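Notebook B, p. 112. Complex prediction, attempt 2.
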Amino acid sequence: MPIIDVENLSREFQVMEPAGRFRRRRKTVHAVRGIDFTVEQGEAVGYIGANGAGKSTTIKMLTGVLVPSSGRVSVCGFNPVPQRKALARKIGVVFGQRSQLWWDLPLQDSYPILGAMHRMPEADWRPRFRELADQMDLGEFLTTPVRQLSLGQRMRGEVAAALLHRPELVILDEPTIGLDMISKEKLRQFLDAERRDNGTTLLLTTHDMSDIQRLCQRVLVVDDGAIAYDGQLTGLAEVAGAVRTMVVDLATPMHSGVLFSLPDGAVHEGIEANGIRHSVSFDPRRLSAATVLAAISSTAEVADLSLHEPDIEHLVRQLYGRARG
Amino acid sequence: MASPRATSSLTSRRATSSRAGDPHAPVTNFVLLKLLVSARLRSQLAYRGSFFSDVAGQVLLGLTEFVELYAIVHNVSTFGGMTLAQTLLVFGLASVAFALGDLLLGETDSMSETIRSGKLEVLLVRPLPVLLQLATSDFQLRRVGRLIFALAALAAALLLTDVHWDPAKIALAIITPLAGAAIFCALFLGAGAMQFWILDGRQFANAFTYGGRYVASMPGAALFFPIQIFFTFVIPATLVAYAPSLVILELDGPAGIPAWTGWLGLPAAVVLSGLMLLLWRAAIKKYTGAGG
């Protein structure tokens, strides 16, 4: 049985908009329109989309905060809103922007309370807490009040809090927002290990595409309330027609790219550093990096080169364009 | 030689396991409640300076309210047919009831902030009723300052008034502050629930909670007749202190608040609490979009 099973799920809101000086008109906004997807136990799924695409609304419906307008949703075998409290014991939720820790207390004081909320005896939550504190390096700031923690420290504390009761499914809403590179990487490593070791299912929304690259085998792209893409990240690149970019530094400056005699499917994009640095984009489905390099090397001596993978944010944007057009 | 030591270690282990600290003990509601409340208290003590000034402020606030009443009674000799000591009894009963209600559910009147900041969603994804989490997360110890002052006022009033105590009156004097506290809890709950519909409803909600306290702590006879009816039979503010005081002091009430209403405090508290709990449930349902 899938851990998340969503069928033809829709949610609309009634909002009032001004109509004339005093009158207001009721307007229906379709935040989520008829989405279908399932997530199996142990999967890691990235749920991405632009602001207002319907990500948070979907998450609210999955966690029992919001009732669907129509359609069916089942999470861990529960119907989220009517069985909200039972579901809460099976899932862990991290809202990147809001804290579930006790703000004025030392970080370590939040865990006994959360353990008790999940009806875990001390013999049960204490070892789990030690394990989490160890893996996430919470040790040095466990006695610091939460309000004094840095964002990265707090976020590690939040994730530990959401995982204390060994949830089957962890839903993370923008978990890495505002974190520095090291904190992001620590968090990703931890989540990945948690999934591999305990079979915990992960569903995360993010604007940071490297979160997806590092953590998720599968992405769901939502646009305007509908699923625009469901599949592997590499497949997304193909669907959206991604291009790779090769940047070469030449031994001697060249002030025009015309001489390169590039093969079909490769485009000279620009020149920097007084003719030293040239960038060439090419379609990875038609050309290999070696072919492109050979073409360039035949006219100029290449001193250094780097390859740039397609920017996923850009891909998603292209995909949105296709879905709309 | 080693056996006494072994025995003692065995008994001490048994002693440890029978204490509340047994790591395998199941988590009872009581344990959970104790943890939640103690976390809240420790949070408040985290800012010691502001905590003590808050307590002092609350005492001062209660005192100011009393001075206001005193100023009136001092100048007109009787206020709504009551002497200073009798007025103090009404004031004391009302203050104790309000302080208790405020202590438990006082901060539901900032519900709109809880909703707007998204904090409510955090509460909703935990396996506990939202109301229990709110009551414990907003258990404001500084409000104890108000309670201390209220108890002092009540004690003074009981000493100064000349009451012919009988079992019924003693029972009423004990039930009254508790029923009153329940009435204020219900009013706070209603005020919180209202803010799910009116997001800027805090001021409007305060009219019922703080307004209710204002009415509750003065002799009801001083009120305009329709207001008497409204604050007795619609919003039962006069039932918190004034009406029971009439019974305890053996006084006749005004037209809108006959003395027999002194016995209505407890039933009113039960009915109002029930209604407000229903309203609260509807409010949560409204938030989750499950109707209402």
